[in-house]
Design brief:
By secondary structure, the chain is of the alpha+beta class. It folds into two domains: 72 residues, no CATH class; 133 residues, Jelly Rolls, CATH 2.60.120.260. 20% of the residues lie in helices and 37% in strands. It is built from four helices and eleven strands, in the order ββαααββββαβββββ. Strands 7-4-10-6-8 form a five-stranded antiparallel sheet, with no helix packed on it. A four-stranded antiparallel sheet has the order 3-11-5-9, with no helix packed on it. Strands 1-2 form a two-stranded antiparallel ribbon. Strand 1 and strand 2 form a beta hairpin. The longest helix has 29 residues. The chain is elongated. The N and C termini lie far apart (66 Å).
Amino acid sequence: MATFTEHYDLIKPGTDDYYDVADFNENMDAIDTQLYQAEQDMAGVSEKIGNPGDEGEDTLFGLLNPGNQPEEKADFYRYSKTEIKKQIQNWKPNLSGSTTFYGKITTFRAEKNGTVYVKWTSSDTANGEFYIYHKAPLSILEAPDQSELGSSIPKGLQQEDFCYYHINYVYSSNKGKPTTFEWVFPVIAGIDYTFMWYASSASSLYLNEFSLGYTDTKEA
């Protein structure tokens, strides 16, 4: 005795039924109808999504265009257009038996007034802090990227007004799992900005990625 499939009622002849070409054709017609409908539905979805660069409001890409967004959302849309100027990867400082570490990540001279974007991914086991100095001694400015500067704050950086930004990016241990943080900062043309890394209660340190560049984004 024939039965039917759950979703499209396709005919399933029983083991005792004779072959009937009409049943076969009915099944093919049902399958053809469903496939064609699915194809039309997908075409409609694709049309509504549109293409990158659309400026009208009749597609999803068009609605996301900065010209059709409030200022704060337009900035977020432009986030992917960051112009990377500095990138450091896979830095593993030597703690040398200490649990405290100071290191220079890099010094960045702003070419223009604007906003820079910073991405930080680390898998260290420590309490971490991130400093940006807009003033620094010549010895620090000229130190190469990824300089290990010991277990105490380098001489000349103790002055509070030298520090432009200070962020605690990790509290306690992240147990060695990569953690990513992202920030944006305003910069002034002609100023050298020195990025420093401080860690305490550290049992291991590993900077997976540090990326820095200009961006139109005004808020992280």
